[in-house]
Amino acid sequence: MTEQIRVAVLGAAGRMGATTCAAVEAAPDLTLVARVDSSDGVAGVGATGAQVAVDFTVPSVTEANVHALLDAGVHAVVGATGWTDASRARVAEHLARVNADRPQGRGLGVVIAPNFGLSAVLAMQFAARAARYFESAEVIELHHPTKVDAPSGTARHTAAAIAAVRADAGLGPMPDATETGWEARGADVDGVRVHAVRLRGLVAHEEVLLGNPGEQLVIRQDSFDRVSFMPGVLLAVREVASRPGLTVGLEHLLDLG
Ligand SMILES: NC(=O)C1=CN([C@@H]2O[C@H](COP(=O)(O)OP(=O)(O)OC[C@H]3O[C@@H](n4cnc5c(N)ncnc54)[C@H](OP(=O)(O)O)[C@@H]3O)[C@@H](O)[C@H]2O)C=CC1
Ligand SMILES: O=C(O)C1=N[C@H](C(=O)O)C[C@H](O)C1
């Protein structure tokens, strides 16, 4: 029999949490040992024997959950949004501290992925690859109307990557003659405009528009069902223990990073 990885799911009653519980239960090498909801709190996860916890909670609690998991000696796979450079840096610093006290080769790992869907990861990669060749770039994310945060974590990550590539290539600000009505031009993420659509019937979708004189490149991905995120989530659950420290983005587990 293959060695089982014991998994806890935080936010288990939510849309992604419930889908993750089903995927873990269906995986022959994983055992679901805890379903943690908002009424339970994260404190008891260590006592469940979980080796890895998957966090699909909400932006307001996910960072605190990760710190509690690290204090309990549990690896973390994080899909919840709301992460910033500062909160990621605090987790990296916490990891360095706990791992200094752990035996060689037994360090804790945290994988934070703004999007576990292969189509989304590839769209972000393609957009970053293309960004240096275009004068203009804008991001449109489209989601179900029950989503609490905007713009999406994926769109922020996409825009930040485009901005980094543009800066590296020495591209200046994008052409934009707007003088009035800035509220209609979307959020500014590192100088890249990001537009958020909330529409009944949608799940999770993103378009990156790249423009030059006389031409346009559109990169689009669609997650029609939350099962699309599960291969990425399960990959991270299986890999996190062999990646001590902080990993941001599923691309690094797919050898795309
Ligand atoms: N990385 C990725 O690939 C993806 C990321 N996401 C992200 O995942 C997150 C969850 O999305 P979704 O499932 O749609 O949202 P839901 O609102 O359906 O689920 C969130 C769940 O977390 C629970 N929760 C809140 N606080 C706690 C807590 N302290 N401990 C345990 N559980 C808690 C909520 O319970 P209650 O309702 O009782 O408060 C709820 O059941 C979002 O940030 C979303 O953006 C979504 C899809 C893919
Ligand atoms: O809330 C969602 O649904 C999603 N959230 C993530 C995000 O904000 O990027 C990932 C995906 O877009 C679905």
From TrEMBL:
GO molecular function: 4-hydroxy-tetrahydrodipicolinate reductase; NAD binding; NADP binding; oxidoreductase activity, acting on CH or CH2 groups, NAD or NADP as acceptor
Residues annotated as domain Dihydrodipicolinate reductase N-terminal: 5-116
Protein's cellular compartments: Cytoplasm
Cellular component, GO, one term: cytosol
Stored Pfam families: DapB_C, DapB_N
SUPFAM superfamilies linked: Glyceraldehyde-3-phosphate dehydrogenase-like, C-terminal domain, NAD(P)-binding Rossmann-fold domains
Binding site residues for (S)-2,3,4,5-tetrahydrodipicolinate: H144, G153, T154
CDD domains: DHDPR_N (cd02274)
Domain Dihydrodipicolinate reductase C-terminal: 120-254
GO biological process: diaminopimelate biosynthetic process; lysine biosynthetic process via diaminopimelate
Keywords: Amino-acid biosynthesis, Cytoplasm, Diaminopimelate biosynthesis, Lysine biosynthesis, NAD, NADP, Oxidoreductase
Pathway(s) annotated for this protein in UniProt: Amino-acid biosynthesis; L-lysine biosynthesis via DAP pathway; (S)-tetrahydrodipicolinate from L-aspartate: step 4/4
EC number: 1.17.1.8
Catalytic activities: (S)-2,3,4,5-tetrahydrodipicolinate + NADP(+) + H2O = (2S,4S)-4-hydroxy-2,3,4,5-tetrahydrodipicolinate + NADPH + H(+); (S)-2,3,4,5-tetrahydrodipicolinate + NAD(+) + H2O = (2S,4S)-4-hydroxy-2,3,4,5-tetrahydrodipicolinate + NADH + H(+)
Binding residue positions for NAD(+): G11, A12, A13, G14, R15, M16, D37, G79, A80, T81, A113, P114, N115, F116
Superkingdom classification of source: Bacteria
Enzyme class: oxidoreductase
Catalytic residues identified in the record: H143 (proton donor/acceptor), K147 (proton donor)
Subunit: Homotetramer.
Physiological role: Catalyzes the conversion of 4-hydroxy-tetrahydrodipicolinate (HTPA) to tetrahydrodipicolinate.
Family according to the record: Belongs to the DapB family.
Protein name per Swiss-Prot or TrEMBL: 4-hydroxy-tetrahydrodipicolinate reductase
